[in-house]
Every structure is written in structure tokens, then in C-alpha cells.
Design brief:
This protein has helices at 2-12, 16-19, 51-62, 65-75, 81-109, 113-121, 126-159, 178-195, 203-228, 243-259, 262-267, 269-272, 284-310, 317-321, 327-360, 367-381, 384-390, 392-400, 402-419, 444-465, 474-478, 481-499, 514-536. The protein is mainly alpha-helical. The termini are far apart. Residues 1-5, 525-530 and 539-555 have low confidence and may be disordered. Its main location: membrane.
């Protein structure tokens, strides 16, 4: 009997019924197969993230190699370490506000970014934002995996020193050596089962990673200062810039500090939707500036002390670790930074891409299946070693894609907080014929905003990709690309919304469920009957609003 069942089970894997995901009975989706448990509103019993868990998230994300290198890219512009630190602090305060404001949508209504974007972009136009983020998420998943492989290679070489001289059989044109590819495969294999963990259970993974990464960062800091006998030469250097050039370097430094977290700012509802309180999102205003400023400053100190020790300025801390003679020390610190990179890859790329897959094909994909596809396509099909090796134009384009994402973040925030005054009709967000359909599924105000805000920064992006394209002083405008894109996105969208208000999509009170909607409608219907009786008896004035459906303001 058991043997016959075993022979039948594999055959079911090739049937549609086996892979089909049922739409939950409580779903608000218009049709069966248009939603699943990972796309729907998070049930109350699964809202188990507290504010402290988001601190672990940011510590896991911030205590990594990329954060420590960020200060170096700003100092390289000609600013002093003090100016670079100040630019990082200002930039992180700004992006923290964007994360907290957009994250509140998730912590208050417990819906993912993809569903929330329908309110401001429209039921079908929201797919543009989702696909845009999905493509970036897949590419950056591969790039971060390749960065994690660098840390893994140090670990492997600490265990097997002969790996340093392992013969390379991969052509130089591929941008990767044989030992680095071995490290890549090891890191990807370790990462694979972890990305399959559901986000609501991910908080403990971030806790472990944050503790390990913090210990490694401060241990490296202590070693560097002690060995160098101080903080090193970087702290004695002053800015090499003057006048307007220095001012624009400040602006560019702030822009760099902000840009790297734009992806998280847009997909933060995917994480805050599991919060047990709305206020959990507000804590990002405190967590983000403190975490990223602290570890950016640690990166400056380690790089400066490393220059005093080795005579070369390494902004990448793994370059310093690779030169340690202590194999055990190199292993544990590199292992910690590999874990931190893994945490960044999951929070910034894997969770976002997995949610996007579940949103695009909810009939067949949930978050775990989306994570599986992300690991395969993002980890291997994107060939991140090729991107890192030769495609400078591509990496510049990817980093410059914030000119598209930043206006989307601005539209979502201004729409939710100012236009709608934080009021959503949540069930309608899941219905293609609901109030958020707009015209042909597109909010034309958002479309016009993007058509204006995005092209303005395109010349600067082209110049950044190919410096031979002369755009004159217009290049300075691109140095503040995130700031200008966000400001234009918010102002244009608000202007259009005030002149042509989306009246049919506005609600007088937040509606979280259809039961609540029906109850309010029934209550208003009862009041309307009382008004009729009052009119027939000639007693008193009728109230100004006697609509039979007060929840939605019809045009």
C-alpha cells in the first residue's frame, strides 16, 4: 500500500492541482486565484513582530561591509571624515523618515507593498512598480551573493590555505576565478534554505545575525586601533574642496547615503505588515540613523587605522581581514560579515522579490515558492560575477534606477498621508472593479508624475554611465537625484491631486473588512430612514450628508 502511494505521489508533481494555491475563504479578492495567504491581509495571530525585532533587522542590515564602505565613497569625493560623517547622518535621517512613513501603511493595515501601491497607482498600474522592483531585486540578489562569496572565500582560505593557490581554470573574461566560484557556491548553498524561511519567522534569524555582526565589527575596530596605536592618518586630513564644488560634494554625499536604502524604503510594508502595533514603524526614525551612522564611522576608523598598519587605504574591511596572519581571527570575522551580508540580501532583495512573485502569480506562487525562484534566477541566471567584472555601465544604471523608485515612494507617501489622510478601504484594494480601479486600472495622476519626474534626471544618468556625453552644469542636478526625484514626485502628484482630486477613491473612515463596511452601511441606512420619518413629520432639518453609503465619496 505504501509503495503504491509513493509511486503515485511524484506523478502529482506534474499536475496543475498539485501546484495550485487556494484563495483563502476570508480573502477580499474578486476572483478565485487572484490572491493567496501571503498576499492577503496578515491574520491577527501572525502579527508577531515587535519594535525590538525591527532593531535587529536594521542591525543585521547595517553592520555589513557595504555600510562600512559607504563612508569611503564619500571621502573619495574630497570631503573630510567629519563632513562625510555629517552627510551620512543627514542622509540617514531623511531616508528614515521615508521608511517610517511608508512602513506605517504596512504596520497599520497589514498589507504588502504590492497591494498598498494600488491605492496611489491604480489596480493595474501597480504592476509596473512591482515588476520594476522585482527585476532590481533579482539582480541585486546575485550581486549581494557575490559580495558574500568574498567573505566566504576568506573563511575557506583560513581553513585550507592551499585554496589561495588553487589553479584557476575559468577564463579571465568571465570575471571570476575557480576558488571564488567555489566560495560563491558555498555561500549560495548556505543562503538557500535561509531565504525559504517565511518573513514572519525571520525575526530570530535577524537577531542572531545582528549579534554576530556587532561583535565582529567592534572586534575589528578594537584590533585596528590597538595595532595602529591610534585612529590613523585619515582623521588628520581635511577637505580638498572649496566653494560650490564642496557644496555639491556635500549634496552628493547625502544622496549616496540615502540611495542605498531606497529599495527598503519602497518595500518596507512587506516587513512592517507583521508588526503587532502601528507604532512599531515609527521606531525606524531612531533605529536607522543610529545604526548606519555608527557602522559607517566604524568603517572610517578601521580603514584609517588599516592605512597606518599596511600603508594602503582599504575602504573594504574584507581586504584588511584577508591580510591577517591569524587564521582563526580571519575566519570568525569574515564569517560574521558573510552572515551580515546574507541578512541584507534577505531583507532588501529576497523578501521583496518573493512578495512580488506572489503578487504577480498568486494562483501558483506564494512567498516560499517566490524565494526559491529568486534564489535560482537571482543567484545564477543574472551571472553577478559578469556584472561586477566588466559592466560598469550596468552597475551605474542599476544604482541610478532610484530616479524611478524614488518618485514611486514619494507618490505612495504623499497619497497616503496627505491626499487620503491615512484612510484606506482595504477590501477594495483586492478588487479589480473596486474604487481603486480609477480609469483602465491606472491613476493618471501618478502616471503623469512619473512621466515628468523620471525623464528630468535621465541626462544625468546617461552622463554617469558615459562621461563622454557632455551635459554641462546639468550634471550637478543629478548629484541630488534622490532628493530631486522625491521632491518632484511628491509636489507634482499633490498638485494634480488637489486640482483634480480622486474623489471616487477617497473614504471617510478606514475600512479594514467587508463586515465593517456592511455594518457602517446598514447603520447609515437606518439613519436615512429616521431622516425620512423626520421629514414626513415636519420636524427639524436634515443633516448635510444623507448618503446611503457614506464610506465612499462618489464623484
Amino acid at each position: 500500500m505504501l509503495s503504491s502511494l509513493k509511486s503515485i505521489e511524484p506523478k502529482r508533481w506534474f499536475t496543475k492541482d498539485y501546484w495550485y494555491l487556494d484563495t483563502p475563504p476570508a480573502s477580499y479578492a474578486t476572483r478565485d486565484g487572484w490572491s493567496n495567504a501571503d498576499v492577503d491581509v496578515v491574520p491577527v495571530d501572525q502579527r508577531n513582530w515587535r519594535a525590538i525585532h525591527y532593531l535587529f533587522l536594521w542591525l543585521s542590515d547595517g553592520a555589513n561591509v557595504g555600510t562600512m564602505q559607504q563612508a569611503g565613497s564619500i571621502v573619495a569625493m574630497g570631503l573630510s571624515w567629519r563632513e562625510a560623517s555629517a552627510a551620512i547622518a543627514i542622509g540617514n535621517i531623511i531616508i528614515a523618515a521615508a521608511v517610517a512613513l511608508n512602513g506605517t501603511i504596512g504596520s497599520r493595515h497589514h498589507i504588502p507593498f504590492s497591494i498598498a501601491s494600488r491605492a496611489s497607482l491604480g489596480f493595474y498600474f501597480s504592476y509596473f512598480a512591482v515588476v520594476s522592483r522585482l527585476v532590481l531585486g533579482l539582480i541585486y540578489f546575485g550581486i549581494n551573493t557575490f559580495i558574500g562569496a568574498s567573505c566566504t572565500l576568506i573563511c575557506l582560505e583560513a581553513i585550507w590555505p592551499q585554496l589561495k593557490t588553487y589553479p584557476n581554470t575559468i577564463p579571465a573574461s568571465q570575471g571570476v576565478t575557480s576558488n571564488k566560484m567555489i566560495a560563491y557556491f558555498v555561500f549560495w548553498t548556505i543562503q538557500f534554505p535561509l531565504v525559504l524561511i517565511h518573513p514572519r519567522k525571520m525575526r530570530w534569524l535577524f537577531f542572531v545575525k545582528s549579534i554576530v555582526a556587532i561583535i565582529a565589527a567592534f572586534a575589528t575596530l578594537g584590533w585596528a586601533v590597538n595595532t595602529a596605536g591610534g585612529s590613523g592618518p585619515v582623521f588628520s586630513k581635511h577637505s580638498t574642496l572649496t566653494g560650490s564644488t564642496r557644496s555639491w560634494a556635500w549634496v552628493a554625499g547625502i544622496n549616496v547615503a540615502i540611495s542605498g536604502k531606497t529599495t527598503l524604503a519602497i518595500n518596507i510594508p512587506d516587513l512592517t505588515r507583521y508588526a503587532n502595533k502601528t507604532s512599531a514603524s515609527y521606531w525606524q526614525l531612531l533605529f536607522i540613523p543610529i545604526v548606519y551612522f555608527t557602522f559607517s564611522f566604524i568603517g572610517i576608523v578601521i580603514a584609517s587605522a588599516g592605512q597606518a598598519i599596511y600603508g594602503t587605504l582599504y575602504w573594504d574591511p574584507t581586504m584588511i581581514i584577508a591580510q591577517w596572519t591569524s587564521r582563526a581571527g580571519a575566519f570568525f570575522v569574515a564569517f560574521a560579515f558573510a552572515l551580515a551580508t546574507l541578512g541584507t540580501n534577505i531583507s532588501t532583495n529576497s523578501i521583496a522579490a518573493s512578495n512580488d512573485f506572489a503578487f504577480i502569480a498568486p494562483k501558483w506562487l506564494n512567498i516560499q515558492r517566490g524565494a526559491f525562484i529568486t534564489a535560482i534566477i537571482g543567484g545564477w541566471a543574472t551571472c553577478p560575477w559578469k556584472i561586477q567584472q566588466s559592466a560598469k555601465a550596468l552597475t551605474t544604471f542599476l544604482s541610478g534606477y532610484i530616479i524611478v523608485l524614488a518618485p514611486i515612494v514619494a507618490i505612495m507617501i504623499s497619497d497616503y498621508w496627505i491626499v487620503r489622510k491615512t484612510k484606506f478601504h482595504v477590501p477594495m484594494l483586492y478588487q479589480n472593479e473596486g474604487i481603486y480601479k480609477y480609469q483602465y486600472g491606472t491613476n493618471w495622476r501618478a502616471l503623469v508624475t512619473l512621466l515628468i519626474a523620471v525623464p528630468i534626471n535621465l541626462p544625468g544618468l546617461i552622463n554617469a554611465i558615459n562621461s563622454k556625453v557632455d551635459i554641462g552644469n546639468y550634471s550637478f542636478f543629478y548629484k541630488a537625484s534622490w532628493l530631486t526625484s522625491t521632491a518632484m514626485g511628491a509636489s507634482i502628484y499633490l498638485l494634480l491631486s488637489f486640482i483634480f482630486p480622486p474623489t471616487s477613491t477617497l473614504v471617510d473612515k478606514t475600512v479594514e473588512s467587508m463586515d465593517e463596511d456592511f455594518a457602517l452601511a446598514d447603520s447609515q441606512a437606518w439613519e436615512t430612514e429616521q431622516d425620512k420619518e423626520k421629514r414626513s413629520s415636519g420636524g427639524g432639518e436634515l443633516p448635510e450628508s444623507s448618503s446611503s453609503y457614506p464610506i465612499v465619496n462618489r464623484v
